[in-house]
Amino acid sequence: MGTTDARPSEEEARRRLGQAQERLLAALVAGGEPPAGFDPVRLGAQARSLVAKRRSVVARLRPDAFEASGADFRSDFDAYAASRSAPPPGYRADADDFAAWLVAQGKLKVRRTPLSRWRRRKG
Q1: In terms of DSSP H, where are the helices of 30-116?
Q2: SCO6045-like C-terminal domain spans which residues (predicted)?
Q3: pTM for the complete prediction?
């Protein structure tokens, strides 16, 4: 009746699971080292697939950035993605950040937003 349970507490197990998930996420989106027990080749393929998905969505959301990058779009986006520790939250933010990256590279001119109609009418 006085046996000691050798298993880790539920709180400790959750903490370790959370750390393992963080390492896996870092390997997938931030170029981190693959966690123990994961095939680095397969993990690399999955990471490249996730960048390709981001790239295709960004091309649809920001056709101006896609056109400005031209034939270099793939290499430009991959360089942009590699320059970040993690993607921003959401595809729209990713697309806007990529466009800002292109502006910094001198490949995209800053768009001037015209005054909205209500401001012009308010006059």
Answers
A1: 40-61, 63-69, 73-82, 91-105
A2: 19-103
A3: 0.74
